Amino acid sequence: MPPGATFLLSHRAAFHRRGIPAGQAAKEMVHVSATPVLALRGVSKRFGAVQALTDVELEVHAGEVVALVGDNGAGKSTLVKTIAGVHPIDEGAIEWEGRKVGINRPHDAQHLGIATVYQDLALCDNIDVVGNLYLGRELRKRGVLDEVEMERRALELLKTLSIRIPSVRIPIASLSGGQRQTVAIARSMLGEPKLVILDEPTAALGVEQTAQVLDLVERLRERGHAVILISHNMADVKAVADKVAVLRLGRNNGVFEVASTSQEEIISAITGATDNAVTRRAARTAEEQK
Amino acid sequence: MDKTSTQAEETTAPEEETPAPAEQAAAPAEEAAAPAEEAAAPAEEAAAPAEEAAAPAEEAAAPEEEIAAPAEEAASHEVVNAEAAHDALTAVDPRLLVREQGLLGYWAEFKRKVHAGDLGSIPVVIGLAVIAVVFQLLNSNFLSAKNLTDIAVTMVGTGMMAVGIIFVLLLGEIDLSVGSVSGVSGAIVAVLSVTHGMNEWLALLVALVSGAAIGALHGFFFARIGAPAFAVTLAGLLFWLGFMLQLLGDNGTINLDGDGVVGKLTTYFFTDIAAAYGLAALAVAAYFLGAFTDNRRRAAAGIPSRPVADIVLRSVVLAVVAFAAAYMLNQDRGLPLALVIFLVVLVATDFVLRRTAYGRKIFALGGSVEASRRAGINVTAVRVSVFALAGFFAAAGGLFWASKIAAANQSAGTGDLLMNVIAAAVIGGTSLFGGRGRTWNALLGALVIVSIQYGLALEGIRTPVVYMITGGVLLATVVIDSVTRKTQRTAGRA
Question: Which range among A268-277, B46-55, B155-164, B232-241 shows the weakest confidence by mean pLDDT?
Fold first, then answer.
C-alpha cells in the first residue's frame, strides 16, 4: 500500500471516529448530563421525487452555538424550515427538552420557544424600529397601542443586547444592513425564545456589520439561548460556533467541535473530499489486504 | 510659457553676476540658456509627477469620504468621523433635536426632512396658498365666507371617499370602483326610502352596509383569489355603474326629500356661533391634553419626549387655524353638519390607523407583505377589511353627493369623481406606493381639488378646461410623489 493511501485511510478513520454517527459523537463530546433543548432523531423529508433530508440527527444545548454548514442544496434551509414548522417532517422525531413534540406549523415552533431570523430580513421598511420589533405582537392598553411601554422595553432590549441605533423612532429604511440585521435578531429575542435560528445572518454584510452580528450571537449564548447558525462563511463559524454540524446531500456528514477541528477538515466534510474514488479504493484495498 | 520665462530668468542671472564684457557674457549666456532649457524640461517632468501625486492624493481623499459613510452608519457605535456624521443625513430623533436645540431644532428637523424627501404636507399647503391668492385676484368673491363655506360642505363628499382610498393606498393597492359604489349608495337610499317608503335611517344604514359588502367582495377577489386589485375594481367600476342604472330604472332620477335625513346631511348648519367656536376650543384642548399626558407618560418612563414648549407651540398653531375657520364659518351660515361628520371621521380613522394594532397591520402590509405574513398578520383578512372600508366610505361619500343635489340620478359617481378622489388622497400626501400617508391627507387634498373647481366655476370656465386643469394638478402631484420617493430612496428612507 502506498504511503499516501495510508494517510487517507487514517484520515478517514479519524473522521469516522469523530464524525459518524453524528448523534453519538455529539453526545460523547458535550456534557451528557444536560438534556438538549432541541434534538432531531432520524429526521427525513421528501419533496415529491426529491429526498431533501435523510436520517438527520442534530442536537442543540442551551448556551451553545451550533453552526449548520453545507454546500448549496445540502438541506440546511429545509432542515431549518422543519424546525421552524414551515415544512412538517415525514419521518423521525423532534425532541424538545427531552420530550417528543410535533412541529407542524410555524405557530407550534413559536409556542415552544423557537425563534427564526430568516435570510431576507422580514422587516417593514416604512415602520420604525419599535414598530418592527413588536410587529404582530403589539402591546396594548385598553385596545390601544401602548407606544410608551413598547418604546421603553425596546430601548431596554436593545441595551441588554448592546445594540446601538441612533433612534428607535426612525424607519427601518434609514438603518444600515448590519443595524437591520441586529434589529431582526433583537426582534426574535422579544418572546424570550430558548432556541434562536439564524439563517445566514452575515451573508450580505460588511466587515464591521458582520462583527456586530457575531458579537450579538455571542451575547445570545451568554444569555443561555441555544443558537443554530447557518453560514457559508468558515471564518464566522470558527469565530462564534461551539459545534459544527455538516450536512451533505441531505445527510449528516459529521459533527465537529470547533476548537479541535481545522477548517480544512470541515471543508472536506462539506465538499465530500473525504469520500471520493481514491478514498473508496483505499478503503477497499485495505479490506482486501486483511 | 514656463520654459521661456525660466530661460529669461536664467539668462539675466548670469548677466548680473558677470558684468564683464557684454559680448563674451552674451555667449555664455546663450550657452547657459541651453542648459537652462534642459533644466526646465526636467522641471516640467517633475511638475507632472507632482500633478500625478496630487491626483492620488485626491483619490486618497475620496476613500476617506467613502469610509465616512459607513462610519456615519455606525455613528452611534463610535464616533469615528464626527464631522461626516454631523454633515450627513443621519436620522436624529426629532424629539431630542428640539429638546437640545430649541427653536433651531425645528429648523434642523425641517431641513433634514426636506433633504430626505419627507415633504409631508408642505407641497399641499403651498398649493392651497397659491390657489387662494390666484383665485382671489381673479375674483374677489373667492375668499368670501359664503364661498368658503360652500367649499367646506362640498369637499366632504370627495373627502369621505378619499379617506377610503387612503386606506387602500396605504396597502399599496388601488380601488377604481369607489365612484360607481358611491352612485350605488345614493341609488339604494333613494329607491328604498322614496320608492319603497322605508325609514330613511334604515335605508341609509342599508346603503352603508351595501358599500362595505361591495368593497369586501372586491377584497375577496383580490386577497383570496389573487386577482390584481386594479383589474378587480376596474371590473367593479363598470359592474356597479350598471347596477346603479338598473336600480334607478327607466326614470333615471329619483328626487330625495330635501328635509329628510340624507337631505339634511349637507343643508343643516349649527347656526349658533358657540357651536363653531366650541368645536375649535374642544379640538385645541383635546389636542393639548392628549399630547401633554402622553408626554408626561414618556417622561415618567424615561424615554425621549418633546419639551412642553413644543406642545404649546403646536397647540397655538392649531388654535389659530381652528378659530380662524370657526370665525369664517360664523360669518356665513354657521358650522355645517357635514364638516362636523367629516372631522369626526378623520379623527376616528386617524386614531385607528396610528393607535391600534389594526392600523399598524395596514402600514406593515404597505411596507412588506412577506414580513407581515411572517409576523403572524392575517394578510387576507386585513386586505378584505381594507377594501370593505373603502367601499363603506365610498357609500358614505355617495350619500353626501346625493344630499347635495337632493336626488339620485344617472350621472352620480361618474365623470371625474373617481379621479378627483384619488387626486385628493395623493395631493394630500398619501403615497401611491403604499405604507405612507394619513387620513388627514383627505382633508387637505379634497380642499385643494374642490377649491380649484369652485375657483374655476366662479370664473365661468367650462368643464373641458376644468378637466384638463384637474388632470394637470393630479399629474403634478404624482410627479411630486415619485420624486420624493426617489429622494427618500437615496436618503435611505424608503
Answer: B46-55
Q: Name which of A105, A167, A182 to mutate to probe chain B: the one with the most chain B Cβ atoms within 10 A of its Cβ.
A: A167
Q: Please tell me the distance from the alpha carbon of residue A251 to that of residue B378, in angstroms, as a whole number.
A: 36
Distances (CA, A) of B201 to A98, A154, B193, B263, B337: 64, 48, 9, 12, 16
- C-alpha distance from B312 to closest chain A C-alpha (Å): 21
Residue A136 has φ and ψ, to the nearest 5°, of 85, -5
Q: What is the pLDDT of residues B166-207, one digit of tens each?
A: 999 999 999 999 999 999 999 999 999 998 988 999 999 999
How many angstroms separate the CA atoms of A113 and A98, rounded? Answer: 14
Q: Are A127 and A180 in contact (CB under 8 A)?
A: no
Residue from the list B70, B73, B368 with its beta carbon closest to the beta carbon of A125: B368
- Distance from B77 to chain A by nearest Cα, in Å? 6
Name the band, by pLDDT with cuts 50, 70 and 90, for residue B118: low
- A276 pLDDT band, cuts 50/70/90, is low
Contact A148 B303 (CB under 8 A): yes
Contacts of A146 in chain B (CB under 8 A): none
Would you say residue A77 has pLDDT above 50?
yes
* pLDDT tens readout for residues B70-80: 434 433 444 44
ω into A21 cis (within 30 of 0)? yes
Q: Is B125 helix (H, G, I), strand (E, B) or coil?
A: helix
**Domains along the sequence of chain A with CATH:** 3-113+193-289 (3.40.50.300)
- Give B 336-365 residues with CB within 8 A of chain A: 355-357, 360, 363-364
The reported pTM is 0.76
Sign (positive or negative) of CA dihedral A189, A191, A192, A196: negative
Comparing CB atoms, the residue among A145, A168, A179 nearest residue B360 is: A145
Pick from B303, B305, B436, B486 the residue to mutate for testing the A interface (most A CBs within 10 Å): B303
Q: Is B316 on the interface with A (CB under 8 A)?
A: no
B85 touches chain A (CB under 8 A): no
Q: How far is B336 from chain A (nearest CA, A)?
A: 31
Domains and CATH numbers, chain B: 2-79 (no CATH), 89-118 (no CATH), 121-271+333-490 (1.10.3470), 276-329 (no CATH)
pLDDT band at A259 (very low <50, low <70, confident <90, very high): confident
Q: For residue B358, what pLDDT band results from cuts at 50, 70 and 90? A: very high
